[in-house]
Amino acid sequence: MSANGYHHPADSNLKARLAQLVDVDRTQLAQSYQRVLQEALFSRRTTIRPNMVKQIASDEIDLFISFLQTSQEAVARGAALQQIGLNEQPVLRMSQVTRQFFAARLRNEEIASALEIIDAYQEQLMLGFIQSLEKEVFRVQERTRQAYERVSERERP
Q: What is the total count of domains within the chain?
């Protein structure tokens, strides 16, 4: 799809090709995602458990393929990644891995169009991630405000 929302007929062919490339090399993409997620385990701001890494990587691949096949929005996936405890760094690194995965497998003339498709997915993903993070920050601020009010009320004469 172009920036103006027009779907080029070649887009569906390229999306099918991207999905086929993932099917062929799914294990390698999953392992690359898992490496990124395992690195994130050592981050202070990531709260995922080690036993979640394989499932997160597999789910990410499934959702990307679904996006390619049905144009299903990725906003909910971005929110889910934030809610399970990932911070922005591994999410952005998985984006980079995705681009590198396809850049290594596509013909030069396909790369620019493929990056537009991948970026559309990543934009939706990050939108959901940020929206979820904003909601969490608001909830924490609200709980802090309520706690402060309770303490203030107890300290009044």
A: 1
